[in-house]
Amino acid sequence: SSGINAEYGSQQDNLQSGQAANVSSELLEAERRIEQRMKHLREQCEELRVPHYKLYNLYYFDRFNVAWCPTFKASSSTWRDFFIDEMVGGYAKHRSGQKYHLGMLEEFALGHGKRDWSNSPRKLKFSGERADSTRFTVVRHPLSRLISHLLKAQNLPYEVKRQKDVWTREAIMNGRENRDWDDLTRLKYEQELNTYISELEPAVDHTPYSPDNPYLHPPYPTFVEMVNFIMKHRTPRVDQKGANGHWRPAVEFCDVCMNTLDIIIHLEEEPAELMVLLNKLGLMRFKDRLSQKHNASKQDVDNSKSKSKDLMKQYADMLNNNQIRFLNKMYAKDYMLLGYEPIPER
After folding, report:
1. Residue 303 has pLDDT above 60, yes or no
2. DSSP strand pairing (66-68 vs 134-139)
3. What is the rounded average pLDDT for all residues in the chain?
4. Does the pLDDT value for residue 301 go beyond 50?
5. What distance in Å separates the CA atoms of residue 279 and residue 260, rounded to the nearest whole number?
6. pLDDT value of position 127
7. What gap in Å lies between CA 114 and CA 258, rounded to an integer?
8. Is the pLDDT of residue 272 over 70?
């Protein structure tokens, strides 16, 4: 903890002694919270005998001796951009206009693991990774992750186009189709939706469409439509769309029990937990850069825990108990292992 305080405190020279003491206390509390979380995780992994999901969503960066699992909608873009900048060449290399995406880090992805790694507590060893690496991820309440993903599609229209084959188009159509429509009406509405989506990027004046076309009022999915889409693709079996990383439970996507992560922080507990993470990773020299971006990733819901809870309640109130029970069952292991509360039924 002294290392954290020294690094973090170096920017606190202008603080009163009482304020500095509060900073130190917050960091110590964050350390204790993370230690308890990881201890609880290890115990739950053994007690519940969490299955091996055979997922290897880890990226290893030898320069930092760090392995990272991207939990989508929990600062994954922040860390993705950081590692692209540091390992691939960043803006200097991709300033031609190519958008950052996880595929740029493909060369750093760890392959399938092997058991029985001698001289290491790891359950899985990955080729090219050092035995003393630090594996980490950042997580977020599952409901908050869903809201964040939805708001991106609602606030950035081009996201509806980029994800039309993944979920947005189908979610809209499933939620608004009327069985009383005749074939011509159904075809007209569908064609108008397809045309509207195709014109979203780059932004242009849209081709006129029927004012009574429900697919375009609003021209993006609602929260209920999003949840129903997930339910459809995870019941009775999980298909490819249902396994999408943007809503897949973090315990599954990062295979946290089998991949033996060393540190998991809550996005909701920043900046203190971020400082603990950066200290453990030896990345405190990047704290200003990462702190700014981490804080931005929280803005899509809210950067205050109390207001975030209020917003989650607002969205949960849109759901019926059947939908809430589905989400609570889907995210049960995230709740149990990562320290989050289930969504209260209405």
Report:
1. no
2. parallel
3. 88
4. yes
5. 19
6. 80
7. 11
8. yes
Q: 3-class SS at 151?
A: helix
SS3 131: coil
The pLDDT score that the predictor gives to residue 201 is 80
Q: How far apart are CA 133 and CA 118, in angstroms?
A: 15
Confidence check: pLDDT of 110 > 80: yes
* Residue 181 to residues 118, 176, 207, Cα–Cα distance (Å): 65, 11, 22
Secondary structure class of 210 (helix, strand, coil): coil
Q: What DSSP character marks residue 114?
A: B
Pairing mode of beta strands 66-68, 59-61: antiparallel
For residues 227, 147, 66 and 241, what is the CA-based torsion angle, rounded to 10 degrees? 20
How far apart (Å, rounded) are the C-alpha atoms in residues 163 and 149? Answer: 11
Find how far residue 162's CA is from the centre of its chain: 18
Is 226 within 8 Å of 150 (Cβ atoms)?
A: yes
Q: How far apart are CA 93 and CA 185, in angstroms?
A: 49
Give the Cα separation of 140 and 149 in Å (integer). Answer: 12
Task: Tell me if 222 sits within 8 A of 154, measured CB to CB.
Answer: no
CA pair distance 217, 201, nearest whole angstrom: 19
Which 8-state DSSP code applies to residue 32?
H
User: Does the pTM of the predicted model rise above 0.90?
Assistant: no
Distances (CA, A) of 280 to 40, 66, 139: 19, 10, 17
Quick check: bond before 344 cis, omega within 30?
A: no
pLDDT for res 5: 53
pLDDT by residue (tens digit) across 191-210?
Answer: 999 999 999 987 778 999 99
Answer positive or negative: Cα dihedral of 91, 92, 94, 96: positive
**Is residue 57 pLDDT above 60, yes or no?**
yes
Distance CA 303, CA 148 (A): 12
Nearest 5 degrees, angle CA 157-CA 140-CA 339? 155
Query: E strand or H helix at 69, and its extent?
Result: none
Report pLDDT for 97: 58
